[in-house]
């Protein structure tokens, strides 16, 4: 059966890819974007199956109105994908207060507002799937991406709690954690703090490690995303790409090793 989606950040990147793929398989999509003129070609191709909605997700009132409009228009809401967001590059010492607040406003609060709007509608339906687009940066921290990591770890935290809260109502939650894909996440969509020369050596070392990396094709993610939203029992987390899977394995192995090594110290805090 066809599904009705609400997807944010549909003007480019993953959001646009998944919007077009969902429409191509016969689903309906409420496509939210800051600039809906970028969706003109999809509207011409797919007609009434797409509902372009202009939206700044940091505006809570607008986010609630957009989700309700999509539900009223299509009469149902099966999948909500919180994809809108951006990466902020900068070492923690370099990041201004305004930059930090802007990153959290978009990547955390924007997703929260859309999620809050969707919950009562899905609860009333007795079904629904909230898909949060996190990152391998929501699993591991990387130098020069600290405030971005913070935003994705916050998304991961509230979404895991949410999964427990809404499960009794038939609503599912999945965090998708992509690795490096050829979207404009690190280019046109990214923001960068003014560079402090003290971090020049570290920045150059990071750039050198990334120099040989070839970003993956975003189109390759479509079948995995469909597998998740079509599953009767979708996972809470899905690592997207082999590199992301391998990195997460290494990160958790290191954490388990460290926790084990310090187990006696941890247990010593049980009693005076």
Describe the overall structure.
- The protein has 272 residues and is an alpha/beta fold.
- The chain has one domain: Rossmann fold.
- The chain has 9 helices and 9 strands.
- The chain has helices at residues 13-24, 40-46, 60-74, 97-125, 146-166, 200-210, 222-230, 242-261, 263-268, and strands at 4-7, 28-33, 50-54, 79-82, 88-89, 128-133, 171-178, 191-192, 237-240.
- The protein has a 7-stranded parallel beta sheet with strand order 3-2-1-4-6-7-9, sandwiched between helices.
- Helix 2 links the parallel strand 2 (28-33) and strand 3 (50-54).
- Helix 3 (60-74) packs parallel to helix 4.
- The longest helix is centred in the middle third of the chain and has 29 residues, at 97-125.
- It is globular, with a radius of gyration of 20 Å.
Strands in their spatial order, largest beta sheet: 3-2-1-4-6-7-9
The helix content is 40-55%
- The radius of gyration is 20 Å
Distance between the amino and carboxyl termini:
60 Å
Largest sheet: 7 strands, parallel
Number of domains: 1
Highest CATH level, the class: Alpha Beta
Shape: globular
Strand fraction: 15-25%
Just name the CATH architecture: 3-Layer(aba) Sandwich
Q: What ranges have pLDDT less than 50 throughout 5 or more consecutive residues?
A: none
Number of helical regions? 9
Please give the number of β-strands.
Answer: 9
- CATH fold field value: Rossmann fold
Mean pLDDT: 95
Structural class: alpha/beta
Secondary-structure element order, N to C = EHEHEHEEHEHEEHHEHH
CATH superfamily: NAD(P)-binding Rossmann-like Domain
């Amino acid at each position: 059966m066809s599904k009705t989606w609400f997807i944010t950040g549909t003007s480019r990147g993953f959001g646009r890819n998944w919007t077009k793929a969902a429409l191509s398989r016969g689903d309906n999509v409420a496509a939210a974007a800051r600039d809906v003129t970028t969706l003109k070609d999809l509207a011409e191709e797919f007609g009434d199956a797409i509902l372009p909605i202009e939206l700044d997700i940091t505006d809570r009132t607008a986010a609630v109105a957009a989700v309700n409009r999509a539900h009223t228009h299509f009469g149902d809401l099966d999948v909500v994908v919180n994809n809108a967001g951006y990466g902020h590059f900068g070492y923690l010492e370099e990041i201004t207060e305004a930059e930090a607040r802007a990153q959290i406003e978009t990547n955390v609060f924007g997703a929260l507002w859309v999620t809050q709007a969707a919950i009562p509608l899905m609860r009333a339906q007795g079904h629904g799937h909230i898909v949060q687009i996190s990152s391998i940066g929501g699993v591991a921290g990387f130098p020069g991406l600290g405030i971005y990591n913070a935003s994705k770890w916050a998304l991961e935290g509230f979404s895991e709690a949410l999964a427990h809260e809404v499960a009794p109502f038939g609503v599912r939650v999945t965090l998708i954690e992509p690795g490096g894909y050829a979207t404009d996440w690190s280019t046109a969509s990214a923001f960068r703090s003014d560079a402090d020369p003290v971090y020049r050596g570290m920045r150059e070392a990071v750039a050198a490690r990334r120099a040989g990396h070839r970003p993956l094709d975003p189109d390759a993610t479509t079948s995995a995303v469909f597998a998740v939203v079509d599953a009767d029992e979708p996972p809470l987390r899905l690592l997207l790409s082999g590199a992301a899977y391998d990195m997460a394995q290494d990160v958790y192995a290191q954490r388990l090793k460290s926790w084990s090594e310090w187990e006696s110290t941890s247990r010593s805090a049980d009693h005076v």
